[in-house]
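Person: I keep going back and forth on a fold encoding question. Show me how you would write down a chain together with its backbone fold. Please set it down just below, with no commentary around it:
Helper:
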Amino acid sequence: MTAIKAALCCDGEGQKKTAATRVFEAARDLFYHRGIRAVGVDEIVCKAGVTKPSLYRAFASKDELIAACLEQTARESGAALDQVVEKAGGEPRDQIRAIIRHFAIKVASPDFRGCALSNTAVEIPEPGHPGRTVLESCKADLRARIVTITRQLDVGRPEELADGLMLVIEGGMAAHHIFGSQGPCTAMMATCDALMDAHLADKAAV
């Protein structure tokens, strides 16, 4: 059983959470709200109410725990986007607008503290770090998802449009750290529409 699966298991229906689950949940909350570098193993086990040996029985290292938390974040994000795209219907423009709206709503949430994956990219610049490997894969999957949709639009440069939309998403989430939910991130939907209109107009003019 992988660390992430072990962490999400319980001792049984209605039973107390396992030490691995408590460690995982405590770490995920602390990493998101305090930052990965600012949180040590001692603080995690204290919040989880377990011992250090319990942590290391479930996760070989803090780095493995970081990766497990990010894997779950990536899994949840992918599932949420699947639902968003499905509900948007078959029109690619509607699907793109639904994806941008999904992120705009997240940014406007009172407990939003940036994208957990993008935050980690800033905190962990080392290539090959288990956490960085997870976040890079997740962001690549998001770009690929958007490219797949933009290729269904009548535009001449679908990859360029997808990259512009990625900048809207990442820029909106990053701007929240400085300006909050009422800052530049409120322009995410309008910017998305303007980008698509510009690319569609370029193709029509050819």
Q: What stands out?
A: The longest helix spans residues 62-88.
